[in-house]
Amino acid sequence: MSTAPKDLAETPMAEKALAIHRRLCGVYGCPIPYFHDLDPVSELISSLLSHRTRNADSGRAFKALRARFNDWDSLVTAPTEEVQALIAGVTWPELKAPRIQAVLRAVQARAGSLDLAFLRDMPVAEARSWLEEIPGIGPKTGAAVLSFSDLRMPALPVDSHHHRVAQRTGLIGPKVDVGPAHAILRAQLPADWDAQKLYDNHEILMLHGQRCCFHRNPACGACAVLDLCPTGQARTESRRPDRTAALHP
Ligand code: SF4
Fold it and tell me: What is the mean pLDDT of the chain?
């Protein structure tokens, strides 16, 4: 699945990725506690709900589904309008309701049941491929199922915050989309990193995007990785008063 060169972990970019990881671990405190302890199918549903949606809203929608259905098989056969009404608080409920049902139907067809525990016995790349062959499951959802669920497998999800910080710090190019960024960013980190370390890497870059490297007006002056970030250096440089002009008005 990975299109990134295998020796990327030995490049200067990998050194930079490690330097950023160490620095941000110091800021946000690694190891970061896991925020979920769901089985993989529940995590899959949670992840599909969360796309472009605030955590609080997708969390409420997930709880509403849990409260309504005794098991996820019942969700698959429920009227789609009912599922849509239950998840009305997320973005695009009219798209997500049929998509969730279709994805779960595909899991049933391929795995024989709504049980993804068998993924634990696969190498990560194989488990990701298995998931991503299902229409509606992209690299982020596949990695989230493996990393965030109780499978606790070493996969690296990349959300929009993580992606933004990676682009601004130059870990990935400005035109690399979220999907392809997964393989590149994973390949920059040591191959033998365990699930917790990769989870930490995702979480600290995501937290940094939420708390410092804002979509608009990143707080570069207060950023712990300013010296490693070409975007931040360019921004702070351009805001510095022109001393030549001050000396020679
Ligand atoms: S220096 Fe600025 S642009 Fe770079 S990571 Fe920090 S906040 Fe983001």
Answer: 93
